[in-house]
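Action item from last meeting closed. Structure (281 res):
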């Protein structure tokens, strides 16, 4: 029987945010058993908090935004992925603004900070989502399925395709364990197509984006501050996002996920359908 876990202390991060482009500080705090994952806006009067579940998602444009009780928090997926991979069930995430630091564009520092802080086992049994039957999300060119998995783990099969990417299409299959996530998924950085930059800026997004925290695809090449860690770094980052977004079902996830050209909208739609199936069981 898996037990719930929280952090032994506080994990603290500071840096520039991706979309708003301001400096922010974030603290991941321990929480009592059966709390879940909550984000708390310490810069807002009354320090309102919102639980990180799919029913509280209000925006999926280039990131996952949750809102409730007067608290709105954007781009939560890298933190949620790190917590999920580490097996953290209960935490309060304090933020002094509407968005966490983007750091290097990956989940590497978030994951490392949680591990360095240490984990504490709690007495209650961990809540785990296991699909009782396959769940399919049809997004046209995007398709996602989660099905029962006899190994009782989270295994992801993912394929991506982007015009202008020199390594296309990309595919990866991986079991999301703590060790695999740390080595193979957490360091994968976010990316953007050059042709999308003007539109994103006109939407008031990626004001803090740079080659320090993102890779840019343009003209059959990928530009980034440092060389690609893997030729298929893009699909690895997509798996990172899936790991975080599916944790919005409110439980650890066990199952086999097949994702074709996934993104935040379909990830969250699948997490919502998972919550609905769970409520019926």
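Sequence:
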């Amino acid at each position: 029987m898996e037990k719930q876990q929280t952090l032994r202390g506080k994990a603290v991060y500071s840096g520039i945010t991706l979309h708003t482009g301001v400096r922010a500080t974030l603290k991941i705090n321990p929480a009592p058993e059966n709390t879940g994952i909550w984000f708390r806006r310490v810069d807002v009067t009354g320090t309102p908090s919102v639980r990180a579940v799919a029913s509280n998602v209000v925006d999926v444009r280039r990131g996952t935004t949750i809102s409730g009780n007067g608290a709105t928090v954007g781009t939560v997926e890298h933190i949620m992925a790190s917590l999920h991979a580490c097996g953290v069930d209960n935490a309060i995430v304090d933020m002094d603004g509407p968005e966490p630091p983007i750091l290097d564009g990956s989940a590497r520092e978030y994951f490392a900070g949680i591990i360095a802080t240490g984990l504490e086992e709690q007495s209650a049994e961990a809540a785990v989502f296991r699909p009782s039957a396959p769940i399919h999300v049809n997004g046209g060119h995007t398709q996602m399925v989660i099905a029962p998995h006899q190994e009782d783990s989270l295994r992801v099969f993912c394929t991506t395709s982007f015009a202008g990417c020199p390594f296309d299409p990309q595919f990866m299959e991986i079991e999301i364990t703590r060790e695999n996530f740390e080595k193979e998924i957490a360091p994968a950085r976010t990316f953007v197509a050059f042709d999308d930059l003007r539109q994103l800026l006109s939407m008031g997004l990626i004001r803090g984006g740079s080659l320090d925290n993102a890779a840019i695809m343009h003209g059959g090449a990928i530009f980034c501050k440092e060389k690609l860690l893997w030729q298929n770094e893009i699909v690895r980052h997509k798996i990172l996002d899936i790991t975080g977004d599916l944790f919005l079902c409110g439980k650890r996830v066990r199952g086999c996920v097949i994702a074709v050209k996934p993104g935040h909208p379909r990830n969250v739609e699948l997490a919502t359908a998972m919550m609905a199936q769970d409520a019926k069981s």
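Note appended to the action item: The first strand starts at residue 3 and ends at 7.
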